[in-house]
Write a structure and sequence with these properties.
The complex is a heterodimer of chains A (about 425) and B (about 375). Chain A has 2 domains: about 110 residues, no CATH class; about 250 residues, ABC transporter involved in vitamin B12 uptake, BtuC, CATH 1.10.3470. In chain A, helix 2 packs across helix 15, helix 3 packs parallel to helix 9 and helix 3 packs antiparallel against helix 14. Chain A has about 425 residues and is mainly α. The radius of gyration of chain A is 22 Å and the shape is globular. Chain B is built from 15 helices and 2 strands. In chain B, strand 1 and strand 2 form a beta hairpin. At the A-B interface, helix 6, helix 13, helix 17 and helix 18 of A face helix 6, helix 12 and helix 14 of B. Chain A: InterPro entries: ABC_transp_permease.
């Protein structure tokens, strides 16, 4: 069976569609342009927190659980199973991470969280693949179950421990944090508040110092996922199951087994995201700590068009707005309005230059409105900032849903021989 | 012959079997934590059937039932309205503030109740309509959009329910709520349960009405037929002249309007204001719609069961049994019911196929060889 598909990658699948996606130079150009614009906004508004190392560090910390959940969603959906139970699997991850972390140290916690999430994934696979239950229904049921089960388990395992109770665990030991030696030199550059130089220094310092090992693991999982799913025979088979299970079956792929692989790995990644929440982001398990990050992860995955790189940038974007708001930066979020106005104006001009007048006009009009909003107010209510990732998701979906392409057999039930 | 029974049996067995499985799993969980399942269950049943408990169960199941119906309307057409939570929170806030607003005070009490309920339905439908529009015009999956709208709605409510906007702070309390509704638009209770000191919330009448309307509209009207047809086979529904986009829009608006009613029993019959504690029933409503298999009676039974578990859990703590066991029961029941129905359907389908195969092949198996002539 292993030889059946091994030769396939060389066949028509090989040339990836390049026409619509950014090529690398253009991508770098866009990133550089964004950086310059952000630096300009910081210089104009004086909202130094926009590119401070603290904000970048917090953004990474917010982005990791979202990104891990998104990766989880990617693995399941590439195998054709919608995993809306990510939230539930993440809840398992937070609980098992804290529980094992408290008893046997942080790395045991990470392993237990991965196992707990994988167990949730296994349950989802059992319901959807073996029993053919609707994917959304099973996912919702698992999320309900996870909330109840962890609460019951907390009652048994945390009640009576120092600091523990029905809704929270005792403090959990931290995972080691790493810094690139010498990166603290950037400190002086950052504090000088030079245009662009200080911004770059802040970003580098945030990304290179005091980084949790789990953040590094998460960052490595993104290219690893790409490599496994797009560069190995295993990945090709898994994706073929999500695109056209009947064809895959006819070529000798065990569709059920690959769906199981995808969904269990998906749960494991969500569990890892949960471990990050209870062991790195805060050193304690708390009930409803996930706060819907499983869903945001799913949104980041859709935002990223079911690709690892795209979902990582989506997670970073959501993480960044989240971080600014967490740092009480209604000033910096207010400054972001100016940035948004810049971006919208740039997009509008670009569209007009390409001959799409209406789209461009709408974008420029929106830029003017956002600019006016910036000019006439001093701050944005914290509630709006908290809703920013969700609003972004809706806007992105509304604008880009025509260009997104999910796996062809995503969310469909598959019966062998049916 | 016994054919209808053969077909019905797996369908009846499914919920019973699922309940047994859920009870078994909860028993195992109890045994692991060194508790006796028998005493736990019997004390739950004893406590849950006291008159006071029955009132509280009925009151709680009002909201659960309406929420379940709201979700079920979507389910009947393969739409997932996961946004019931956001819809009814916004609806309750809008209805509570407008109902207490000075410019509506000239209305007589009964009319104002009607207006309040209408506002709630319109706001609920509006919030669901956002998701419907996104789906119809831009092809955005309602699963994601309603989840996002839940969060956005929650933040919007948090923003509006501050003393700067719609909220007022009660004296000597930290809680912010909308102003109390005038007394003439409170709904009085119904002394439904004899021997109970409290009364059943009067809004239960509306809940029953919602159930009847759901049964009638979906089962007995052209619109309901179109809706179910689009849910079961969208392609063939479109082929027979159903406007699929319009059906999505209508179904979602209807679901949202019903969802808007979820908070009304609390607003009109109990708290008389929108407080910060409103919310959180959306996911439960999905579980209840699943348990009840989208049937008006089934959802009612599911809501009552859920409310019974919620209420009877209170006694467990007194017996030093963690009451959280109940949430496990609820979760496993949903999962087991879903799986059990899937299996039952599979078995009955196989039985049908076998019977169909038998009737086709039995009469004279040699006939094909005689056909060529």
């Amino acid at each position: 069976m292993s030889t059946v598909l091994a030769s396939a990658p060389a066949a028509p699948v090989a040339p990836p569609p390049r026409d619509r996606r950014f090529s690398l130079p253009i991508l770098l150009l866009v990133i550089a342009g964004g950086l310059v614009a952000l630096a300009a906004v910081r210089a104009i508004t004086g909202a130094n927190d926009l590119t401070s190392h603290g904000a970048v560090r917090a953004a990474l910390q917010s982005a990791v659980p979202i990104g891990l959940a998104g990766l989880g969603g990617l693995w399941a959906e590439r195998a054709g199973v919608v995993n809306i139970g990510l939230e539930g699997q993440m809840i398992f991850g937070t609980w098992f991470g804290a529980w094992a972390g408290f008893h046997w140290g942080p790395w045991a916690g990470v392993l237990a969280a991965v196992a707990g999430g994988a167990l949730g994934g296994l349950l989802h696979a059992l319901a959807t693949v073996t029993f053919g239950v609707d994917h959304i229904i099973s996912g919702v049921a698992i999320t309900i179950l996870a909330g109840g089960a962890t609460r019951y388990l907390s009652q048994l395992a945390f009640q009576g421990l120092p600091g523990g109770g029905v809704t929270q665990s005792p403090p959990v030991p931290e995972l080691p944090r790493l810094s690139v030696p010498g990166a603290s030199v950037l400190d002086r550059v950052e504090r000088a508040h030079w245009f662009l130089a200080s911004d770059l220094a802040g970003i580098l310092r945030g990304a290179l110092t005091d980084v949790s090992t789990l953040t590094i693991v998460a960052a490595l999982l993104v290219p690893l996922t790409f490599w496994v799913l797009w560069r190995t025979a295993f990945g090709l088979r898994l994706r073929s199951v999500g695109e056209n299970p009947h064809a895959a079956e006819s070529l000798g792929v065990n569709v059920y087994r690959y769906k199981y692989y995808g969904v269990v790995i998906s749960g494991a990644l969500a569990g890892l995201g949960g471990a990050f929440l209870s062991m790195v982001a805060s050193s304690i398990y708390r009930e409803s700590q996930t706060g819907g990050r499983g869903y945001i992860g799913l949104a980041a995955m859709i935002f990223g068009n079911w690709r690892p790189g795209g979902l990582a940038s989506g997670a970073l974007l959501f993480g960044y707005t989240d971080a600014l708001q967490l740092r009480g930066g209604s000033q910096s979020v207010h400054a972001l309005l100016l940035f948004l106005a810049f971006v919208l104006a740039a997009v509008g001009l670009w569209q007009v230059l390409r001959g799409r007048r209406t789209v461009g006009a709408v974008a420029i009009g929106a830029a003017v409105l956002v600019g006016l909003w910036y000019a006439t107010t001093d701050a944005i209510p914290a509630e709006f900032v908290q809703a920013a990732p969700h609003i972004t998701t809706l806007v992105v979906l509304a604008l880009a849903s025509q260009r997104l392409r999910m796996p062809a057999a995503d969310g469909q039930r598959y019966r062998r021989g049916g | 012959m016994s054919a209808p029974w053969v077909r019905l049996l797996p369908r009846l067995l499914a919920p019973v079997g699922a309940l047994l499985i859920a009870a078994a799993i909860s028993s195992i969980a109890l045994l692991i934590s060194n508790q006796d399942p028998a005493t736990a269950f019997s004390s739950m049943i004893e406590y849950g059937t006291r008159p006071e408990s029955l009132v509280s169960i009925l009151n709680r199941s009002i909201d659960l039932y309406i929420g379940g119906v709201a979700v079920a309307i979507g389910f009947r057409m393969n739409l997932f309205n996961i946004g019931v939570d956001g819809q009814y929170r916004l609806a309750s806030l809008a209805a509570a503030s407008l109902g207490a607003a000075p410019f509506l005070q000239w209305l007589p009490g009964v009319l104002r109740i009607l207006v309040i309920v209408l506002i709630a339905m319109v706001v609920g439908a509006f919030w669901a309509g956002v998701a419907a529009l996104l789906k119809v015009t831009r092809g955005v999956s309602e699963v994601i959009s309603t989840i996002m709208l839940n969060f956005i709605g929650g933040q919007l409510v948090a923003y509006l329910l501050t003393t700067n906007h719609l909220g007022v702070q009660a004296k000597g309390s930290n809680d912010v709520a909308t102003p109390l509704l005038p007394k003439d638009s409170w709904i009085s209770g119904i002394p439904l349960i004899p021997d109970a000191r409290s009364e059943v919330n009067g809004f239960i009448v509306v809940a029953v009405g919602v159930g009847v309307a759901y049964w009638f509209v979906l089962g007995r009207t052209r619109f309901g037929f179109d809706l179910r047809a689009s849910g079961q086979n969208a392609t063939s529904a479109v082929a027979s002249g159903v406007n699929a986009r319009r059906m999505v829009l209508y179904a979602m608006l209807l679901s949202g309007a019903v969802a808007g009613l979820v908070g009304m029993s609390q607003l009109l019959g109990e708290r008389h204001a929108h407080t910060t504690s409103v919310g959180g029933l959306g996911f439960t409503a999905i579980g209840i719609a699943l348990l009840g298999r989208n049937s008006p009676v089934g959802i009612a039974l599911a809501a009552l069961l859920w409310a019974f578990l919620d209420r009877s859990a209170l006694i467990l703590d007194l017996n030093e049994i963690p009451k959280e066991i109940v949430t496990i029961m609820q979760g496993t029941t949903v999962l087991a019911v879903v799986v059990a129905y899937e299996l039952a359907e599979r078995i009955s389908r196989r039985g049908q196929q076998r019977r169909a195969g038998a009737t086709v092949s039995e009469p004279d198996p040699r006939q094909p060889s005689e056909v060529p002539a």
